[in-house]
Inverse folding.
């Protein structure tokens, strides 16, 4: 059976546990155990060795086979990192009460576009922890590689899902991938070489063509 190698695109399903409790999964049954609605839970498509999943799990994939179940124990350094004391910050209580928020220890809040946990509320001050909740913990993953992805369209969409968090229209001509939306041209210019290294395809984005109406507006200016 073919063994997985770097840059292969694979469909993988996994479940991550910390202290014996599930914190991450692509499995519908495990999602239900977490109290998560399983409707949108599905296997993930990633490119091996390109940091599209946790480092320790990513490194374990090479040499594995499809259809088999595996498990791995990962230390913090290759999981969610060690806890960083600088990520613990203190705010005045008024910062929250002005927004009609009554913080209490254990409460999760979004600050500066990041989810943080309230550690303590004392003397008009609120101490917040911005570390990932799994930081500093050893984790265990059980996983199975369902299949190797060979269709270029699926590969391109997997890269879009991970890097852009949405899908843009593109055209595939031989070994050339042409994106039709010039909004992502600057991103393709930057990350295109990496995409090419992973897929063996050439990536480009077409600049928007100036219409006659737009041209006349510029002339009037």
């Amino acid at each position: 059976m073919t063994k997985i190698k770097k840059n292969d695109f694979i469909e993988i399903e996994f479940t991550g546990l910390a202290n014996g409790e599930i914190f991450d999964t692509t499995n519908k049954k495990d999602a239900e155990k977490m109290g998560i609605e399983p409707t949108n839970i599905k296997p993930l498509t990633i490119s091996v060795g390109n940091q599209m999943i946790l480092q320790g799990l990513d490194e374990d994939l090479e040499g594995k086979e499809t259809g088999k179940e595996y498990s791995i124990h990962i230390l913090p350094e290759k999981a969610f990192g060690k806890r960083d004391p600088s990520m613990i910050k203190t705010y005045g209580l008024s910062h929250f009460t002005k927004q009609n928020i009554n913080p209490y220890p254990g409460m999760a809040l979004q600050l500066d576009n990041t989810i943080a946990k309230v550690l303590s509320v004392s003397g008009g001050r609120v101490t917040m922890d911005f570390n990932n909740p799994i930081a500093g913990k050893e984790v265990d993953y059980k996983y199975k590689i369902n299949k190797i992805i060979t269709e270029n369209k699926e590969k391109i969409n997997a890269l879009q899902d991970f890097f852009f968090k949405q899908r843009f229209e593109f055209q595939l001509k031989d070994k050339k991938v042409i994106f039709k939306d010039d909004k992502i041209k600057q991103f393709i210019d930057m990350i295109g070489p990496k995409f090419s290294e992973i897929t063996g395809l050439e990536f480009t984005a077409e600049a928007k063509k100036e219409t006659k109406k737009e041209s006349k507006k510029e002339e009037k200016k």
Notes: The mean pLDDT is 91.
